[in-house]
């Protein structure tokens, strides 16, 4: 049986799709068979960030409406083995997704995959509720700002009341905090919330802190999940988060502003004694 993970936030534009792409790729890199599903019907972003937009023939709505078989709609990643993408449709209305349809897809994928990642749309409306309904675990993507933390707090309440696990009074959805777009320089200037403040408000375990990094946009534009860029701080932070998710202990990095180089370092390029 696969574990179903929803990547959710409440707020839009915080980095859910970026994180879904990176996390799914990272899990597959670690040998876990992973399928990532785009639930953002209407926007269709995941296939772009994964660089497979030209290979989309059928989508999740076609599968739910019986116009295509699931394996006709699944796109196998060409870079990482064991990674598939189920794209969303761009044109149809959001009501095209049904609980029964999503359940059938998840049950079929469960036979073959270790992890099913659900990239949620923003908000707490139907699409977002469907994305989280079948979840065993939730990655709550939050930015270090008040409005994002407030929306994440709201989504934590929804996970605890509206998920299938909640309805069936089973063990609750396991929650993980992924703090993204963290800019230690702006945190130091008190323009953004510090990690400790966010942790205190949301009070769920920390999976990782992803630094604000211009490599993210470059990677998205190139259709390469940023985790494939091993030089990028954001890519490294995602790799750490995946490792922690799989039970490894890794210290958190990128929490402090980069140290300014001293006079001798600037002069000689290396580390001053
Ligand atoms: N760590 C990061 N550093 C810089 N930009 C980021 C980072 N994470 C996400 N972004 C940018 O933020 C925007 C929204 O990201 P996206 O993943 O589409 O969010 P969502 O799916 O939550 O709407 C995109 O332009 C993306 O490139
Ligand atoms: Mg998105």
Present the secondary structure layout.
Layout: E1 3-8, H1 16-29, E2 34-38, H2 46-49, H3 60-64, H4 70-73, E3 75-76, E4 83-86, H5 99-110, E5 115-119, H6 126-133, E6 137-142, H7 146-162, H8 164-167, E7 174-182, H9 184-188, H10 195-202, E8 206-211, H11 214-222, H12 233-245, H13 263-268
Parallel strand pairs: 1-5, 1-6, 2-4, 2-5, 6-7, 7-8
Antiparallel strand pairs: 3-4
Order of helices and strands: EHEHHHEEHEHEHHEHHEHHH
Taking all Cα atoms into account, the compactness measure Rg is 19 Å
How many β-strand runs?
A: 8
Across the major sheet, the strand order is 3-4-2-5-1-6-7-8
Shape descriptor: globular
The biggest sheet, with number of strands, parallel, antiparallel or mixed sense and barrel status, is: 8 strands, mixed
Ligand inventory: adenosine-5'-diphosphate, magnesium ion
- Cα(first) to Cα(last) distance is 55 Å
Which class do the helix and strand fractions yield? alpha/beta
Specify the helix fraction band: 25-40%
The helix tally amounts to 13
What is the arithmetic mean of pLDDT?
94
Unreliable parts: none
Proportion in β-strands:
15-25%
């Amino acid at each position: 049986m696969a574990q179903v993970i929803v990547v959710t936030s409440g707020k839009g534009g915080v980095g859910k799709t970026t994180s879904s792409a990176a996390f799914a790729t990272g899990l597959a890199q670690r040998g876990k068979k992973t399928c990532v599903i785009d639930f953002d019907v209407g926007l269709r972003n995941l296939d772009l960030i994964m660089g497979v937009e030209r290979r989309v023939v059928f989508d999740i709505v076609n599968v739910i409406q019986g116009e295509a078989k699931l394996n006709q709609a699944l796109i196998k990643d060409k870079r990482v083995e064991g990674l598939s993408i189920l794209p969303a449709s761009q044109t149809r209305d959001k009501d095209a997704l049904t609980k029964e349809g999503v359940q059938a897809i998840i049950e079929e994928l469960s036979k073959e995959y270790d992890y099913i990642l659900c990239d949620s749309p923003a908000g707490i409306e139907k699409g977002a509720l469907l994305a989280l309904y079948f979840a065993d675990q939730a990655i709550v993507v939050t930015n270090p700002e008040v409005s994002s933390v407030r929306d994440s707090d709201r989504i934590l309440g929804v996970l605890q009341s509206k998920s299938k696990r909640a309805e069936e009074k089973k063990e609750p959805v396991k929650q993980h905090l992924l703090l993204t777009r963290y800019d230690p320089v702006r945190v130091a200037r008190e323009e953004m919330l510090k990690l400790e403040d966010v942790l205190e408000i949301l009070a769920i375990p920390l999976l990782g802190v992803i630094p604000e990094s211009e490599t993210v946009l470059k990677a998205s534009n190139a259709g390469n999940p940023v985790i494939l860029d091993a030089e990028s701080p954001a890519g490294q932070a995602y790799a750490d988060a995946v490792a922690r998710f799989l039970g490894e202990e890794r210290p958190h990095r990128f929490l402090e502003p980069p140290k300014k180089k001293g006079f001798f370092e600037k002069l000689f390029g290396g580390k001053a004694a």
